Amino acid sequence: MSIVLGANQYGKAEVRLVRVLRHGGRHELCDLNVTVTLAGDLAATHLTGDNAQVLPTDSQKNTVYAFARSHGVDQIEDFALLLARHFVTAQPAISRARVRIEEYGWQRLGPHSFQRSGGEVRTATATCVDSEFDADSDADAGLVEVEAGLTGLVLLNSTDSEFTGYVKDPYTTLPETTDRILATAVDARWRYQDTGVDWAGSYAGARAALVDAFVGTYSLSLQQTLYAMGHRVLAERPEITEVRLSLPNRHHLLVDLAPFGLENPGEVFVATDRPYGLIEATISRAGDGVG
Amino acid sequence: MSIVLGANQYGKAEVRLVRVLRHGGRHELCDLNVTVTLAGDLAATHLTGDNAQVLPTDSQKNTVYAFARSHGVDQIEDFALLLARHFVTAQPAISRARVRIEEYGWQRLGPHSFQRSGGEVRTATATCVDSEFDADSDADAGLVEVEAGLTGLVLLNSTDSEFTGYVKDPYTTLPETTDRILATAVDARWRYQDTGVDWAGSYAGARAALVDAFVGTYSLSLQQTLYAMGHRVLAERPEITEVRLSLPNRHHLLVDLAPFGLENPGEVFVATDRPYGLIEATISRAGDGVG
Amino acid sequence: MSIVLGANQYGKAEVRLVRVLRHGGRHELCDLNVTVTLAGDLAATHLTGDNAQVLPTDSQKNTVYAFARSHGVDQIEDFALLLARHFVTAQPAISRARVRIEEYGWQRLGPHSFQRSGGEVRTATATCVDSEFDADSDADAGLVEVEAGLTGLVLLNSTDSEFTGYVKDPYTTLPETTDRILATAVDARWRYQDTGVDWAGSYAGARAALVDAFVGTYSLSLQQTLYAMGHRVLAERPEITEVRLSLPNRHHLLVDLAPFGLENPGEVFVATDRPYGLIEATISRAGDGVG
Amino acid sequence: MSIVLGANQYGKAEVRLVRVLRHGGRHELCDLNVTVTLAGDLAATHLTGDNAQVLPTDSQKNTVYAFARSHGVDQIEDFALLLARHFVTAQPAISRARVRIEEYGWQRLGPHSFQRSGGEVRTATATCVDSEFDADSDADAGLVEVEAGLTGLVLLNSTDSEFTGYVKDPYTTLPETTDRILATAVDARWRYQDTGVDWAGSYAGARAALVDAFVGTYSLSLQQTLYAMGHRVLAERPEITEVRLSLPNRHHLLVDLAPFGLENPGEVFVATDRPYGLIEATISRAGDGVG
After folding, report:
1. Which helix (H) or strand (E) segment is D106 a member of?
2. Most buried of the four, A280, C60, C85, D196, by CB within 10 Å?
3. Where does this protein hold urate (chains A, B, C, D) (predicted)?
4. What subunits make at least 3 CB pairs under 8 angstroms with B?
5. Is C249 annotated as a binding-site member?
């Protein structure tokens, strides 16, 4: 039985780019972490070390910086698309380019002074597939797909969360509760139907939908809250076709203060690190192919 | 257009389990991080908050600890299989259970004294799918798949690595080199054809194959080294059907000492953190369905 | 020459405490990480393993939770003082207790809904020394010292920063610049003269002084900015007697785009991780003993 | 009351240096993280931004790389001394230089192939104080002090550890135990009396003493184990004058399996992250000034 090379890809990860846009004395700041991943006709370098089809990852990095200067950076979805299209168009051997960007938020303190906003990160991923085999499509652009999302948005409801009525197997000791803390760090990705989108408005709207649904849902399970969050995004943002959510359940355990003669009516909790529940789901529009 | 729940799963992540096995005064130590992920008929909890089919993640955690006591832990592949089979068998609503285990190595210092071995981690993932729809199969066991692997194995060759003959596009400034440092942190996963395997022997053999191929390959690209590593595993371990490798290129840049009147003939390097190349591929046996 | 036990201390580190204060349906959230360190007559446990003077660190942890319930938590300086005083008072063997608290910020989203504010952390450390040897002092309270501060406040000026006129030794290749990005993650601690302080107001004032001085200083060196920040705190907050600042210089390097036919007039930068400059100083009032 | 600049220092942190020494085809690898800290007549840059006395941290970084080439790197204590002496000697304004080096271990796999050894890190710190005010001393060398140590050495005894006889206050719920797991991550620093030392031999000896004492001590408290470790170093290594140890107590809690009808005779434990006990002490030779 012979041994063969299967799916493969390569690229440059975590290119840290900060761009300052100067409108006279008033500056705009853009702080990105860009990861490029390329796939295509790359068997030779694996099998024989022939690099004739390999664009160095160092060149990919240079391209990120050069394009930031020559094209500017406004919405990260557009910058990811620009880069992904470039790699599949400019490199004959590359049939798929994926560019993932993380954007770190900064809050303005002055005309050219800023403060990092914290742990929340906006993300976008553009994937461009070479369409050489389809003569009717736009061969320069190829087929594209855009995902956006966020990570590190930590949310907590200090009440309006129950967990009851679950399976009791021989290993179940968890007491049912009708009032607990529900906390999570939202990791969300949503997929667009096409690329003609007001990215900034769509991001703000999707983010607000996630937050509003978390805040407004009386939760019977983190699954229910998750579904409500994804449903809200799709209900409010017609340009989004699918939402994937990964929500760790950051358990807050009520401390037993009885040994010290104290009641603890939902007041003092220990925030735990590990283990944690992890709830994941995709919510999509009916009729779409859901992965 | 209606909104629907798509693929979903849940479970308990990072259950930290340490087991001490006492043979008189001589102890064996087993240090694990166990993550359980369940999928199945879980729509109700998402859509209405009805938890009647939800086994709490706390119960999953308890099961890990109880099984460690009642069944013991020898090879992590077997412990992962045991747990995965339990969840699909014992929980009618659960049609797929995946148990991923990380094992941290300890080196013996005495009869009951140990030292952590370092950053390298052995991994195993067992997935058990309920086979209720197939009357001919073993309904108790279901369909199972076992993957093993390792992370955090940091390897470096201080020579016998070139990078030449690559694409020069307008953004290429990287000089060709016939002598560079090649360093990576191996992240490898390999898939087994069935479950009747000498797990310890197979792990040791696969790990040795990875290391030997890295050490013994005169590298023209990290892709070539990667392929050699995967190929070696498959060539030497017939029980393994596929290997996936993810290799960051931990760049070591030669420092320019000319401003200080010094040559630097491959002696002084700066080890960089970001950005880094990332090379990923699957190597498999021809005829297998490769994802 | 004999071997002796010198300075020693012990305690419980990183007690994670979340407290929910309920005013009807409107909740307040307090999220802390508490570290207790005790010193005193503890030679026996070191020398012979006699624990008769050792309060278990587990009991220290319990005390944190019990006091959060029985005394509440408002300002972290007061909670740290309460705990520190308790340990020196209640434990005859303990002559010095230090309680360090980190407070994580949460922004309100609703009556009982919150979002983590990000990387910035408010800190306080109270140290209480048993005054048994000084009959004239308040024997119950002992001598106390309070420090407050913050970490993780990331600030950036995209201009108004120069670095010129420095020493040029044979290893200097850095070009002088009259326009660079200046960025840092502020780690500040300030010391109070006594404990009768409006902690919340003082914290807000000191934080604002740090930020305002960073924003408003035309910087000739990060040292100059650091001094301006510490000076501003002391100038505006008479209750503070000393400020210590530790400021990493988060270098942003202008990318050389000339190989691509592009100028780069202060627009595209690479944000680097390592190495980084680190500038540290104490600013205090004249006449104070400064460590 | 005027505001004054107190103690201050600056330098370059985390200069990552990898050096390859080639003996024909057989290579030696040295992997370091170097941090330089300088103090002296630096008031001007703080007060007015006059940098005439400031050696850029970039030049400090260059010096590390250039010295690695021109002087080589053998023992990190010597390399730290070399650098520290250089900065106080070559820079008139600098009266104290401190160079801290972390060395990452690599295990040989072949003539020029290596594997990272894991989490354990060898450390050394050399401090050189300018002796210009003392005409009788060696003005070129100044006063020097060398510390060495290690971090990240994780040790565990699975028995021979008790914790009993401690204080029971109203917040004590911890049950006494005569058999527990004792685990820690050793952070040790030791100070030398002078600089004419076989650094490699002394390091190996001190490390072995720490490990042997941990393994061989029947522990009644982690304090007792700590003291035994420090005492052993001083007893066996006359060139070392003081040892400082910081030992987190990595708690392993016996899991209560009674709800599942199982006993748990010291077999199944949960390894916890936070909170943790933290035990710190200095052990020194009588007659020395101990900080």
Report:
1. strand D94-110
2. C60
3. 57-58, 163, 180, 223, 249
4. A, C, D
5. yes
Lookup: tokens for B179: 């002598």
- For residues A163 and A134, membership in a common domain is answered with no
Instruction: Please tell me whether A26 is known to bind a ligand.
Output: no
Identify whether residues A213 and A279 lie together within a single domain: yes
Buried b (16+ CB within 10 A) or exposed e, D151-168: bbbbbbbbbbbbbeebbe
- The answer for residues whose C-beta is within 8 angstroms of residue B288's C-beta and 6 or more apart is B241, B242
Same domain, yes or no, for C157 and C247?
Answer: yes
Asked if pLDDT for residue B289 goes beyond 50, the answer is no
- Would you say residue B291 lies in a domain? no
C63 catalytic residue (yes or no): no
Q: Is residue B263 part of a domain?
A: yes
**Of C12, C35, C61, C123, which is the active-site residue?**
C12
- The per-residue pLDDT for range B125-176, each reduced to its tens digit, is 999 998 654 445 444 556 999 999 999 999 999 999 999 999 999 999 999 9
* Cα-Cα end-to-end distance for chain C: 32
The dihedral formed by the CA atoms of C77, C78, C79 and C85, expressed in degrees to the nearest 10? 110
Express each pLDDT in D97-139 by its tens digit: 999 999 999 999 999 999 999 889 999 999 999 865 444 544 4
Hey, what amino acid is at D223? Q
Find residues 59-118 of chain A whose CB sits inside 8 Å of chain B: 59-63, 66, 90-91, 93
- Do B157 and B253 lie in one domain? The reply is yes
**Is B4 among the domain residues?**
no
Please tell me the distance from the alpha carbon of residue A2 to that of residue A199, in angstroms, as a whole number: 47
> Could you say which of D122, D142, D162 is where a domain stops?
D142
Beta strands in B162-275 (DSSP E): 182-192, 240-249, 252-254, 268-271
Do C115 and C163 sit in the same domain of this protein? no
Query: Would you call the peptide bond into D275 cis, given omega within 30 degrees of 0 as the criterion?
Result: yes
CA distance C281 to C182: 18
Structure tokens at D207: 């490390």
In chain A, helix, strand, coil percent, each to 5? 25, 45, 35
Question: At which of A117, A142, A167 does a domain end?
Answer: A142
Q: Do C233 and C270 share a domain, yes or no?
A: yes
Regions of chain A where pLDDT drops below 70: 1, 131-142, 288-291
Angle at A131 between CA A128 and CA A135, to 5 degrees: 155
How far away is chain A from the Cα of D262, in angstroms, using its nearest Cα? 11
Regarding whether A161 and A121 lie in a shared domain, the answer is no
Decide if C171 and D91 are in contact by the 8 Å CB cutoff: no
Distance between first and last Cα of chain D? 32
**CATH value at residue A77:** 3.10.270.10
Phi then psi for residue B82, to 5 deg, are -55, -45
Q: What is the dihedral of CA C217, C223, C228, C233, to 10 degrees?
A: 130
For D244, the 3-state DSSP assignment is strand
Domain of residue C195 covers 150-284
CB atoms within 10 A of CB A59: 23
Query: Do residue A135 and residue A159 come from a single domain?
Result: no
Integer-rounded Cα radius of gyration of chain B = 23
**Inside any domain, residue C266:** yes
